[in-house]
Amino acid sequence: MIFTRLLPALALAAALSAQPASHPIPRIVTSNGRHALLVDNAPYLILGAQVNNSSAWPSTLPKVWPAIADIHANTVEMPVYWEQFEPSPGRFDSTVVDTLLTQARAHHVHLILLWFGTWKNGSSHYMPLWMKHDLARYPLLLDANHRPLDSPSPFAAASLDADIAAFSALMRHLKQADPQRTVIMVQVENEPGVWGGVRDYSAEAERIYETPPPAAVLAALHKSTSPPPANWHDAFGQDAGEYFQSWAVSTYIQRVAAAGKAIYALPLYVNAALRDPLKPGRPPSYESGGATDNTISIWKVTAPALDLLAPDIYMRDSVRYLKVLDYYGRPDNPLFIPETGSGALTARFFFSALGHGAIGFSPFGIDYTGFVNAPLGASRLNAEALAPFALNYRLIEPMNGEIARLEFDGKLQAVAERAENPSERLSFGPWEAIVSFGLAQFGPGNHPKGNPEPVGRALVAQLAPDQFLVAGYFCRVDFRSTLAGRQRRFLEVEEGAYDHGVFHRARLWNGDQTDWGLNFTSAPQVLRVTLSTY
Ligand code: DGJ
Description:
The chain has 534 residues and is α/β, with parallel strands linked by helices. It has two domains: 44-410, Glycosidases (TIM Barrel), CATH 3.20.20; 414-533, Chondroitinase Ac, Chain A, domain 3 (Sandwich), CATH 2.60.220. The longest helix has 24 residues, at 240-263. Mean pLDDT is 95; it is low at 5-20. Residues 53, 121, 190-191, 312, 339, 364, 373 line the site of (2R,3S,4R,5S)-2-(hydroxymethyl)piperidine-3,4,5-triol.
């Protein structure tokens, strides 16, 4: 469907009223510092997969769906390309978006749409041709030497107006074209900021840089206002350029996001290219102006239309990975990992994300186009490479709502194996769950040595004071009473599955299957464990 900004009034009124009560708009709720994404009014865990950048074209979708099926995702992240969506000023083409909606429904998955608008990885490569041809009107950012960088200026008023109009058109279209709520969330821009520079030095940027930063930004960064700082450098010293760029980019995106949200209040977020959480350095060694761990608080005060700021985590070591989860999983920021590496060692971190209360997780580059975002020599993606993620999703999907609810209620703990830690302890008051990696299934468990590769993972959720849901891979889980002199006794270990919220027992584990603890291999198994002491 092609349409223009001047929708006839009647059609517009009909579109705006298309809000059937059966599918309420997805939303994020927060309670006691924990978060849940509600889809159809129930907690929903995003078992995601993001396609490669150029894969959301109708001609390419046949290479997407088999990979989505192989990984067992329930949600697919697909870009919407501004250059395709607005081929000439004010003329919007939703044909590709409509194809995504139709095919996602046919494949029984939800969508998260990624608005590749003003920013894509810090550049403006997805601006339509008619904008690219007019650099005077839609300018690039100027570096300290007043040379343009390959990055849009966050002070370009015409670019902002155009992005607001286009993103609004997208949200308006979704509102009338998606009463089913196939789309559950929208990412506004993609890894915004600037690579290779720190901030914009355009005339408008320079003018504002010499004025005092907004009081809310000063407060967010715990800067004293007596005496009031004269300008950004006065307030923030050597961090001033980076903070200024973060404020400018987030201010721009707030305008885009707020305009879209006013039309259709889907959850919105921005993703971030990260800095090293252990040795951060300073920009330009990382992208400046995005929601990096040190500028989350700027984004929070400047861009309230965004429901969350999301880390793209391509780190593979557990120390860094867990640090990033700590940074972004906050009472004021629902944790969602919209991109992560597709390697086998990354799949385990899905459990770490659950343990940090995440609402979703999504490896990047999941399609069979043959493109792999790794150094040359990496093999093409296939079902075998996706298997570690498929294990996660096949285990969780049948009890998706239960897991999301247990997370939201603060009842669930989950861990991934860390090479340096062959066992983990999870505390549940009078009970402690001990997760061990690298043990044989039969025999004592005092000296776990870790798996040959750290691929183990486990989750334990408290269903009742002495009852737990336990699942995992490549690990042993056992329980210990923390009450003095009391020993753990398995009353019942039921293997089974949830169906519409009810746990159905398939068999009981006993004898060798429980005498040494509960051993999980590569088989997707879910246990309901009832304990007592003696
Ligand atoms: C992060 C970006 O957000 C993605 O769109 C993609 O470019 C990956 N990096 C690298 O493949």
